Amino acid sequence: MNPTDLTSLSPSLATLPALPALVAALVALFAKTTLTSVLQVLARLRAGVFPIPEDARLLRKKQADAEAPFVRRCANVWRNDTENLPLFFALAVVYVLLGASAEAARLLFGSYVLLRYAHSAVFLLGLQPWRALLYLSGMAVCWVIAWKSLLLAGLMG
Amino acid sequence: MNPTDLTSLSPSLATLPALPALVAALVALFAKTTLTSVLQVLARLRAGVFPIPEDARLLRKKQADAEAPFVRRCANVWRNDTENLPLFFALAVVYVLLGASAEAARLLFGSYVLLRYAHSAVFLLGLQPWRALLYLSGMAVCWVIAWKSLLLAGLMG
Amino acid sequence: MNPTDLTSLSPSLATLPALPALVAALVALFAKTTLTSVLQVLARLRAGVFPIPEDARLLRKKQADAEAPFVRRCANVWRNDTENLPLFFALAVVYVLLGASAEAARLLFGSYVLLRYAHSAVFLLGLQPWRALLYLSGMAVCWVIAWKSLLLAGLMG
Fold it and tell me: What quaternary structure, including any partners, is listed in this protein's UniProt entry (chains A, B, C) (predicted)?
């Protein structure tokens, strides 16, 4: 099916050209967090360390005081994502609603997704200063989206 | 007021038939997190355990090193929600913008809300393997929304 | 450029009058969380306490068991924001999509932003009962947005 057919189905696609780029970015980021969850569960099973009592009982282990180191690392990746992804989601939705072009959205959303994949990888591997640089780059992309949204909304003069 | 009158007020309702289902789901999930906060505050007051110094001073208690067990359980529910709800919100908004039907949205959003209410309940009660199964079911619903959004956006051929 | 010119560029601005207010609120909240991150990094460098091993190595310090007190305070502000901002974002986007008026959105979004800035400030300063009162006021604004969205969606009779 080509895009011209689709716009006849969905009025939003006709007026919001950046919507497909947002869908692709969201699904890619959802795949990343799903993968983090899978890694965390596997790491917890492998270490055999369960701080939640019913988890320990289910796997017939003693309840632990704290998570194993790699499980904590996955939790840090998750925490960093919960601090950053919702702001990206909100800014990206608004940017799309303001009529952003498909090209600009593909470039900005694509950069953000790649930077966050790389950030998670180096966080899991424990590589500095790469983690800090990738974090700041992701933030910079969000600030570009914020800036362009302010312009599109007519809020910057 | 019937829906036909409303669409004359809001142009979005005419072109985005799944929007009311999203509003209902959001409000239901907001009610759930509000309830978690209330439970957490009540549990903290009842245990009399306050790790933040100004909270301990306000209630004339000694500052504690860690939260009471049930307060930690509420914090786990919150953490799990902060990891999962924002992705659902973003996927659901995009799905609605792509012109999802009211029926499909009611079914998917309704299932997700029920699964997350059940997940929070069994997490608070400490029931496994139910917590894991409900978590995975909620993720599965989100993946269905992601898949349908990719199709509606014309990104899957 | 005046708003009338802009609506000819973006079809959303013509039908979604509250969209500029949402952009302004999002950018203000993004500035707040960016500031929290900067404060947290500065506090961690100043205390010289690094619980993540590669951070300790990078700065040639011994790995610590826990964060310094003010870094923990910043983490608490972040955690509180991750619990509250995504729900505001989702409710606000839906409220805008339902055709909320620019005036109502400016008042509600503006109040929420001010209350969350004040909440972060008193949390960092350790002032109770102000933190609790500002938290509850922010929640109340979200409930007003939720209620108005239910009305606009025709879900409350």
Answer: Homotrimer; The trimer binds only one molecule of glutathione.
